[in-house]
Write a structure and sequence with these properties.
CATH topology: Glutamine Phosphoribosylpyrophosphate, subunit 1, domain 1
Number of helices: 19
Structural class: alpha+beta
CATH superfamily: Gamma-glutamyltranspeptidase, small (S) subunit
Number of strands: 23
Strand content: 15-25%
Radius of gyration: 22 Å
Largest sheet: 7 strands, antiparallel
Bound molecules: glutamic acid
Distance between the termini: 46 Å
CATH class: Alpha Beta
Number of domains: 1
Shape: globular
């Protein structure tokens, strides 16, 4: 890592004493913060950070809509949880308009630069090492969040756009406390490249020392960026000085420059996509369509397990766990083969959720673990697409918001890896989302991979913001999580725990994790999930015990009472009035 001389500006901006504010975060020593079920009557925010929850609530109390609150929450998260999401990244959001009874889904996913092609991650004829590809400019896609927030505001905003920037601007100017999660991520080398480039080094290692929890930090460069965006809208980001600085940073990245251009930024548009929905028992479950694999794959898992006898089983039983892993195998197999950016590849969304196709897939589930399963042949599927694997270590954040009129937002937002590309410009980090593409464009026989890099394409995601509606068509639940490709497993299991087993949202989020991505069965270390290992091994599972770091934040509406849950594995908060 490189040491640089601290500027006077940094000294001034990063040296407020921690004692000057009330401690914001509870102790995080065990890696878990016990959370209580939150309840409220009017409105609620569940997010990964108390500052963000507070900002969202402040907007709701001023009469803002769920969309208004979501914008404020996202901007504050960018400041206080910079490792996970922000205007330098992308995301997906479900918006529920209670008045119109209308669900919209917004795609703010990053795009590959027009100059990038399928050899982006090939060097000397070999696919690059993932860790080498991630840091620097090569992996930076055109950010989508500013355009997406604008699009959301056009659809469901009530307060003026600029007002939604106030909480983040004040915190950036007055200072905020470093969270235990951020301090931990810096100190533990979560992204080994953090500090390779000067701007992030100066910000996260002032005076050469990693920022510690409780330290109060200001980010005047970010406040300035936000002021411009507040005044001019997304044009301030996609054109002009900020755009030029982003391009210079990406193209000028020492040892791993990228291809992003001003034309890419100027052309970026967030897109409204059709939601992906399916009936599940008395509910209707809805998610985001391609380019994320999240909605389709979560719903497939749920549908494969629709007939289970939830009254007889318990969520932590070996039997349920086994069936959950088998359904997950089938769904992840289809995901790996068929899911990619539907603007470039024919994704058979309807076929993948077709009842008779799923009935056929369900028959492949056995009492003993089947081992890895292959993708099926859903109606409408092309045969030429190929399985693709790309690792997706955790960054990302999810928040769920409902306002007093019943409008809601379920949004997952990401800069991909913790700290993204580690390139920082004007106070925010740039994503490394292009590493979500398959590095290899073809298989050994030269067949094309669906999720290969192509100019202007969006990399396949696993983000799974979801909404559930009851048999009256009323909004019942909002949920989502970070966690790379494990997001799908976390979200599906939380939905099953709530809708199938009747756990409250906090209990469902607290549940120890079990994930199978069509490989080993992963059990969450240090939890009761470990005690399932023997029973699963007897059923033929290859078991792996590991940290499974979700960030589930959800809301369930029970007879007009809002109940909220926050993930004990993060430092967030669900709160309402
Ligand atoms: N980049 C991942 C995706 O879009 C999310 C990463 C994460 O959750 O950490 O699916």
């Amino acid at each position: 890592m490189k040491h640089t001389v601290l500027t006077l500006l940094c000294l001034l901006s990063l040296s407020l004493p921690a004692q000057s504010r009330e401690a914001r975060y509870p102790e995080f020593t065990s890696g878990r913060i016990p959370q209580q079920l939150a309840s409220a009557e009017k409105h609620m925010v569940a997010s990964a950070n108390p500052y963000a929850t507070e900002a969202g609530l402040a907007i709701l109390r001023r009469g803002g809509s769920a969309v208004d609150a979501a914008i404020a929450v996202q901007l504050v998260l960018n400041l206080v949880e910079p490792e996970s999401s922000g205007i330098g990244g992308g995301g997906f959001a479900l918006l529920w308009d209670a008045g119109k009874q209308q669900l919209s889904t917004i795609d703010g996913r990053e795009k590959a630069p027009m100059q990038a092609g399928e050899s982006l991650f090939i060097e000397n004829g070999e696919t690059m090492n993932w860790w080498e590809a991630l840091a620097g400019g090569r992996s930076v896609g055109t950010p989508g969040v500013p355009a997406m927030l604008w699009e959301m505001h056009q659809k469901g905003g009530k307060l003026p756009w600029a007002a939604l920037f106030e909480p983040a601007i004040s915190l950036a100017e007055d200072g905020f406390e470093i969270s235990p999660k951020l301090a931990h991520s810096i100190a533990n080398n979560t992204n080994p490249a953090l500090g390779r480039y000067d701007a992030a080094w100066d910000y996260f290692f002032p005076g050469g020392q990693a920022l510690k929890k409780g330290r109060v930090v200001k980010n005047p460069a970010f406040a300035d960026t936000l002021r411009r965006l507040a005044q001019l809208g997304p044009a301030a980001f996609y054109k002009g000085q900020i755009a030029m600085d982003i391009v210079d940073t990406v193209r000028g990245a020492r040892d791993n420059p990228g291809l992003l251009s001003e034309a890419d930024l100027a052309a970026y548009k967030a897109v409204e996509r059709p939601p992906v929905c399916a009936p599940w028992r008395q509910f209707r479950i809805c998610g985001m369509g391609p380019p994320t694999s999240g909605g389709v794959t979560v719903i497939q898992i749920m549908k494969l397990l629709e007939e289970l006898d939830y009254a007889r089983l318990t969520p932590m039983s070996a039997e349920f766990t086994h069936w959950f892993t088998q359904a997950s195998r089938l769904a992840y197999a289809d995901r790996d083969r068929y899911l990619a950016d539907s603007d470039f590849v024919d994704v058979p969304v309807e076929g993948l959720l077709d009842e008779s196709y799923l009935a056929g897939r369900r028959k492949l589930m056995r009492e003993q673990d089947t081992g890895p399963l292959s993708a099926g042949q859903p109606p409408g599927a092309e045969t030429a697409l190929l399985d693709a694997y790309s690792p997706e270590p955790a960054g990302t954040t999810h928040f769920s918001i409902i306002d007093a009129d019943g409008n809601a937002v379920s949004m997952t937002s990401s800069i991909e890896m913790a700290f993204g590309s580690t390139l920082m410009v004007r106070g925010f980090l740039l994503n490394n989302q292009l590493t979500d593409f398959s590095f290899a464009p073809t298989d050994q026989d030269g067949q094309k991979v669906a999720n290969r890099v192509e100019p202007g394409k969006r990399p396949r995601s696993s983000m799974s913001p979801m909404m559930v509606f009851n048999d009256q068509g009323e909004l019942y639940m909002l949920i989502g999580s970070p966690g790379g490709s494990r997001i799908i497993g976390y979200v599906a299991r939380t939905l099953l725990a709530t809708l199938g087993f009747g756990l409250d949202i906090q209990q469902a989020i607290d549940l120890p994790h079990v994930v199978n991505r069509n490989g080993s069965t992963d059990l969450e270390a240090g939890t009761a999930a470990e005690s399932l290992a023997d029973a699963l091994r007897e059923r033929g599972h290859e078991v792996s015990i590991r940290d499974l770091n979700s960030g589930l934040h959800g809301i369930v509406i029970l007879d007009h009472l809002l109940t909220g849950g926050a993930d004990p594995r993060r430092v967030g908060e669900a709160r309402g009035d």
